[in-house]
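S1.2 Input.
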Amino acid sequence: MSEAIVSLPMYDWPEIQVYNDQFYKELRTSLADQGFIAPPVLDRTNTPMEQWLNSNLLLSQTCGLPFKTVLKDKVSLVGTPAYGINCGAGSYYSVIVVHQETSIDTLDDLKGLTFAYNDKGSQSGYAALLYTLSSVGNTDDFGSSVESGSHRASIQAVAMGQADFAAIDALSWELALRHEPAAQKLRVIATSEPTPTLPFITARRSRKAVDLLHMAVVDAMISLDETTREALLLIGFSPLKERDYDVIETRMNIVAQAFGLEGEA
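S1.3 Output.
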């Protein structure tokens, strides 16, 4: 039998990998308590999409956009983490950032400028940004962009003048303020509307199995020492339903129509 897969790929910055490993130490114990055999270490070898689509996936975290598109009906929702980012439990938002030295102050000022985004499959870095820009109209003015590959790289791109603005999810922004010097060169001019934050998922399983996984995550979070909890900004685990994520799909459909991206929604 193939070994189960567990990963925490979404916020696994080098500076906090030791804390993710500590979280997994507690998580592996709580998973065993609920009858699951977890691997010795987190999977940092395969790509996130390879992990998410693997039938041996025991637990991982994904982005809300692929959860509602590529992964729809292929995975089960285990729960939604709550982070210490001044947002409702289980929700998050994106900050729109520009260089400190620019005269840009409003969303209207962004028209005709170049934005950096981490990936077109990202809710916080791409879909939320376009949805926010659509609110100021004239979507044809936002045609210039740079794909950076990560939120951290988008921050660096704006700091170095390779792009004029970017959308960074609130947790990545907090991590950047702590660990990425380029963030000190930027400032926030707006925020996106909140959506459910990045869900914890497993391969398709019975309701009973998913409930046991949910309890395992809750137990692991409770067991964390304060230093680890603060480093990861974890404050709880919300039992959201899959339908709570429908807002992401709805907004992406609005974006696709506004920006002529029907083939990408």
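S1.4 Remarks. The longest helix spans residues 17-33.
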